[in-house]
Amino acid sequence: MSTVQMLNAQFGIDGHLSFNEDASGLIIAMIENSSAKAALCLQGGHLMTWQPVDQSVPVVWLSRDAKVAAGKSIRGGAPVCWPWFGAHASESSFPGHGFARTVPWRLLETGVEPGGATRLRLRLENSEKTLAQWPHACQLDLNIYVGETLRMELVTENTGSEAFVIGEALHTYFQIGDIGAVRVSGLEGCEYWDKVGGSNLRRQTGSIAFAEETDRVYINTAAECVIEDERLKRRIHVSKSGSQSTVVWTPWVEKAEKMGDMGQPDGWREMVCVESANALENLVTVAPGTCHSLVVEYRAVNIA
Ligand code: TA6
Description:
The strands form four sheets. Strands 5, 11, 12, 14, 15, 16, 19 and 20 form an eight-stranded antiparallel β-sheet that branches. Strands 6-7-8-9-22-18-17-13 form an eight-stranded antiparallel β-sheet, with no helix packed on it. A four-stranded antiparallel β-sheet has the order 1-2-3-4. By secondary structure, it is mostly beta strands. The chain has helices at 3-11, 128-133, 252-259; strands at residues 17-21, 27-32, 36-41, 46-52, 80-81, 105-112, 118-124, 138-146, 149-158, 164-166, 168-170, 173-175, 182-185, 191-194, 200-203, 214-218, 225-229, 234-241, 245-250, 271-278, 284-286, 291-302. The chain has a single domain, classed as Distorted Sandwich (Beta-galactosidase, Chain A, domain 5). The mean pLDDT is 97. Helices cover 8% and strands 42% of the residues. Bound molecules: 6-O-phosphono-beta-D-tagatofuranose. 6-O-phosphono-beta-D-tagatofuranose (TA6) binds at residues 73, 86, 96-97, 171, 195, 215, 247, 249, 273, 275.
């Protein structure tokens, strides 16, 4: 019996969840229930896309040029950035945003919630490679609930006797009508590190509109954000707990062209990242024998 056949036999749920093998050999979970549809790559615990039934286009964006390949991150969806955010503090050879999104994860359990959402629980598989970059006794789980909302719980457990410090993010790409016709509210008055042209500490006034590359790490904020989309006539609510940083990012045209997988010719215009994170001043110390959870819940609301 193949891996896919085994997964379907053990974890598949009629009318909710099945597993396919991608051309690259990676396993993709296809979720479809009465409230939404979604796709998840087991590698990286990577939720690739999510579309509630009342939405004409996905809420979580996947680049049309996204490549699914072993050991490579997928452009779009909700990449898991862990156990550091951005460049590693001292090892430039270590992968940006940590290794979690490019290593195998194991499916622990699947099921249907009382309200009808499809549940999947995954665990990062530690290996020589991960322990070489992160020599700590710990376990990383991701619990995902796919329904009319999308809930994700990233749970770090310290199973050892020494505390350790993590940086992390659910680096989610949201689909929008056009980057020039959205605003992000909820971060008014917050301090942020502006990463464009260096790193300058600034303070947000009013909601965020976009007219150039924008790469900001808002610190010390647990606020819910709202993406107001004039073109698609919807609001996307990004609420969170266990996260004190929010990253807002659009690469704009030059960086998008250099990245090469944002979807030609201007796929970058159809996405904005609002990432729930713990980064910079907001790194998290996980004490021995304790768990830390970063939780997000997304909801799309159509507006007249
Ligand atoms: O979260 C914003 C950011 O750190 C940007 O600086 C840009 O690098 C983006 O992440 C994408 O990173 P990736 O490694 O996925 O290409």
